[in-house]
Design goal:
This protein has 337 residues and is an alpha+beta fold. 67% of the residues lie in helices and 9% in strands. The relative contact order is 0.11.
Length: 337
Amino acid sequence: MTTYELTQHLSTLLQTTDKDRHFVRYVFVLARAYDRLGVELMEGLTSRNRTLFSRKHHAVRDAFYEVRRQTETFPVGQIFHELIELREKLSQLTQQFAETGQEREALQGFAAELHGFYEAFEQFVRSASDEAFGALMRAAHHLHLRLQTLRQVLRLICTTLNAETAPQEGCQLLTLLFDGNGDYERLLVRLQALEVAYRHLEALTGITEPALTVQRLEADRRMRISVEGEARLIEVLTGLLERYVLFRAHLNGAADDEVGYRVGATQSLINLVDALKQAELTDILDDEPRLKACALELYRELEVLVSDGALLQINERHLPGSPAYVSGAQPAPASAA
């Protein structure tokens, strides 16, 4: 599992345990009442004053039924739905970790508390007895403690994963996400294409510092490349990638030999000129022969990057036609080492 995928799983789990969810508020109300009633009950039990004992006993009983009335306002069906959804998400994440790992044990511990609460809730809905409601409050008390701890840990992990190394002064990041099968060799081919394209831009513009550096390489079901380079060159390279992807999308799957190599080369030159203008690198625009030669070289390297249609995101932005874009999935926060 890549860092990107782990971040997505953790973010989804945080969303399904958000404080605005019905079941989370339901658990909070029950757990808070359980704690409060426990304190009241202990004060009565440890008191030698029989009047105080009797008063506390009646107060606890009245508060118990008040909590029951309060929880009747919650939508039972929605709570069941959210509980089932959370159990599914939790199971998906748990399966990603080794069977003997501490992470798996922690998630399984929370899953056990969640299962206990689910069963108590189901039993209360069926019987509506005071005994079942008391058991539900007790289960909520245990689950709420686990839930608070889990969310703290998840937020800490997400913060660590999403903590990007700040680019050097005058530098910029380029992050690409590909659909892949964990093939590191293919990942390195893509990285090499990026490096060659960057060098072509260096030769064209005369900008040689700083060189392109790798921030992160990951390969699993999806492959991720994150590189850092001179801000203007990265801006040009990013613009070329985005324009070339759109150009290919407009071909509607037609092969390059059918469209014509000259059309692609011409479009590559147009893209390069536009990207240079956008980055305010205009000194080279009068040298048409060098522009054409560089455009052809860049055209070949961009083909290596995008010809198989596996590119899903550029700098966390989904591309039209990509599986993530079509499914309506939301991009996860950037994560560069």
